[in-house]
Amino acid sequence: MPDLPPREFLDRLTALYNLQWYYDGLVLYISAAQEAQSRLIVLNPISFDALKAALDALNISDERYIVKPAPGEGLILASGPPRFVALVDQTLKGLVAEAQARRSPAAERSQHESVLMLFRGSSSTVFRDGRPEASPETPLHGGAVREAGPGQK
């Protein structure tokens, strides 16, 4: 083969031997063309534009391979070599996890709330932010916590 720039060399080899290649910024993946994948992936709660922006920012996008909205609500079609499709899927999962962590009321509440569980014999009382909370197992009497009297534990 004549001296060619790296990309042209790869393109010529892949055309000659029916291969495809994908470079993720660290590793050059070469696979047989028949190993190409097409996968429908659910976007919710992430928008297509947010996913596309993340793929572009991470240099995952490649003009040779497809990531596009699919017919239907909240679906995309990703097509290309196995590593490319896997990276699209991993990126989406990361964005979904980030969105869920941001929106999780439990995570928000746990940052601001202190919880204390007090056990006395067979009874227990839960205190949230310093206030007793009734529980089905141990209802509070008159809204107050009973304190142990003399000689009681």
UniProtKB/TrEMBL annotation:
Chain ranges of the NolW-like domain: 38-100
Pfam families named in the record: Secretin_N
Coiled coil regions in record: none
Gene3D superfamilies reported for this sequence: 3.30.1370.120, 3.55.50.30
Disordered: region residues: 125-153
Superkingdom in the source lineage: Bacteria
InterPro entries membership: NolW-like, NolW-like_sf
Identification of the protein by name: NolW-like domain-containing protein
Organism: Bradyrhizobium diazoefficiens
